Amino acid sequence: MTERLDGKPVADAIDSRTREAIRARPGPTPALVSVHRGVESPFRFYLRRQARAAESVGIRFRESALPPGAGAADLAATLRELDRDPTTHAVLLEHPLPPPFDFLDAISELRAEKDVDGVGATNLGRLVAQRSVHVPAVARAAIAIARHYQLPLEGERVAVLGRSGTVGLPLAIALVARESGLNATVILAHSRTRDLRSALAGARTIFSCAGRPGLLDRELVPKGAAIVDVGLSSVPDPSARGGAKAVGDADAAALDGWASALTPVPGGVGPVTVAELMASVVRARDLLDPARGDR
Amino acid sequence: MTERLDGKPVADAIDSRTREAIRARPGPTPALVSVHRGVESPFRFYLRRQARAAESVGIRFRESALPPGAGAADLAATLRELDRDPTTHAVLLEHPLPPPFDFLDAISELRAEKDVDGVGATNLGRLVAQRSVHVPAVARAAIAIARHYQLPLEGERVAVLGRSGTVGLPLAIALVARESGLNATVILAHSRTRDLRSALAGARTIFSCAGRPGLLDRELVPKGAAIVDVGLSSVPDPSARGGAKAVGDADAAALDGWASALTPVPGGVGPVTVAELMASVVRARDLLDPARGDR
């Protein structure tokens, strides 16, 4: 039997700690602002989840939609203003952003403490230097779910499939780092890896961030490996609301009885990511607290 | 026979391109300033090589030694001044720095363009984001020597031994990145890797950045693998000048006839690193040129 690793109990445990962290420490209510283009996009779905999660743990949440026709300079100005605003502790920016916007340039308008998802250059660099401020919530979530279910991780050989600057690479660095205490040996594979099967052969846990539905099957996955499915794709489904459904990288039916454990999509890494994001908002507030030395 | 991969022809080729780049483009002479504590340290040796290399290619070079008793604030002030100085294009800072200095905090006083060795948070983060400005010279050198001798690299399985924020991790990211065009599948191993031998089993090229003399022998290295020895340690040697000699991670005698190729230490990655550093100084000058938009 393949164990199904639900995200909900992991997210609930993180939310409990977040509520406790807010209660335990007086000071301003942690405040998150989500900046987006104000148009239909996959980010809209994530936005609704942010609003619900924030309310549930006691974080002040608001959206900031760019006006129609806004350009890169308007986005930069919005972010600069939020960076200066002492009542905003954490800012999230829609990702990815199409041209003329430049996600990396825009997010760099924020100081590291307010770049709550840790995807700006300073935060990514501090992760490499093993002096992290914020680590991307999705990387934290993938690790949290693996830890919660005690998947082979610390000092083990694990694989990360995918090398994006916002998901695969930060996750690989966090897994290998001394700082996290995980000390994993990481195989970094991707779409251009030749003979993916043999690259994954020695991996006990596979973090899949490829965004390719059905990629992981019995051909590719070593028997008995555990899978954390970070992939998230939308595939047509006439029976679903909106005519599409969310799927991960793993072919769950094919892997049943083959993989030792698998996080479902939806309901696996997703809810844990939102919970980790809220935990980061509280940390952002604490880092920015004048008593601890705002800059 | 194990092929000996000398660094000199690689460094010479890079130096030729650097001289050509300086000649080809009018403008101020590229200028590098090396900041250090002014005390005996391994960095002093590197410093003399920088001075010679700079002179040889036509780069203006000067040292800036901190006065005795200088602290972290003095170092920060020195770097801020160099960041503002329009006649300085590139700044190198002694590494590692003992307390009370904080290398990462200090180097962050420089804009990314002047942090010529790419070890500040912004540069490391831009490397992760695959929009790099400067990549650490040692990582560039390890890749340059591997490319020059056509070691298996592009799309191949390679191993990086070592996970420091200034050497192992930047090298791993550069090898895996789409940006570099290398698209390697990377095994990231380190001192806490269990069963290093089996972790390295599938690697065709091994980049060793462990700093542990004699680590790589026939036990560990798969037969026929190529080795780029980035390790640099000093071991006692009564017959050597100064009573010590530089050695790498590879046991060259043991690997002779076993590894397909090996970079020597000294004379391998070292001279190429200095050449890549000089190439980065010219790039820094070009990035900062007002005609291309200084900030």
Greatest chain-chain contact: A-B, 41 and 41 residues
Number of helices of chain A: 10
Gyration radius of chain A (Cα, Å) is 19 Å
Portion of residues in beta strands of chain A equals 15-25%
CATH uppermost class of the largest domain in chain A: Alpha Beta
Q: What is the global morphology of chain A? A: globular
Terminal CA distance of chain A reads 53 Å
**Strand arrangement, largest sheet of chain A?**
1-11-8-7-5-6
Low-confidence stretches of chain A: none
Total strands of chain A: 11
* Overall domain count of chain A: 2
What is the multimeric organization of the chains shown?
homodimer
- Under CATH, the topology of the largest domain in chain A can be stated as Rossmann fold
* Most strands sheet of chain A: 6 strands, parallel
CATH superfamily of the largest domain in chain A: NAD(P)-binding Rossmann-like Domain
Helix content of chain A: 25-40%
Order of helices and strands of chain A: EHEHEHEHHHEHEHEEEEHEH
Could you explain the architecture of this structure?
The structure is a homodimer. Chain A is of the alpha/beta class. Chain A has 2 domains: about 25-130 and about 275-290, 3-Layer(aba) Sandwich (Rossmann fold), CATH 3.40.50.10860; about 135-270, NAD(P)-binding Rossmann-like Domain (Rossmann fold, 3-Layer(aba) Sandwich), CATH 3.40.50.720. In chain A, about 35% of the residues lie in helices and about 15% in strands. Chain A has helices at about 10-25, 40-55, 70-85, 105, 120-130, 135-150, 170-175, 195-200, 250-255, 270-290, and strands at about 5, 30-35, 60-65, 90-95, 155-160, 185-190, 205-210, 225-230, 235, 245, 260. Chain A has a 6-stranded parallel β-sheet with strand order 1-11-8-7-5-6. A 3-stranded parallel β-sheet of chain A has the order 3-2-4, sandwiched between helices. In chain A, strand 5 (about 155-160), helix 7 and strand 6 form a beta-alpha-beta unit. In chain A, helix 1 runs parallel beside helix 10 (about 270-290), helix 6 packs across helix 7 and helix 6 (about 135-150) crosses helix 10. The longest helix of chain A has 20 residues, at about 270-290. The N and C termini of chain A lie far apart (about 55 Å). The relative contact order of chain A is 0.17. The interface of A and B includes residues 124, 189, 190, 192 and 202 of A. Strand 6 of chain A pairs antiparallel with strand 6 of chain B, so a sheet runs across the interface.
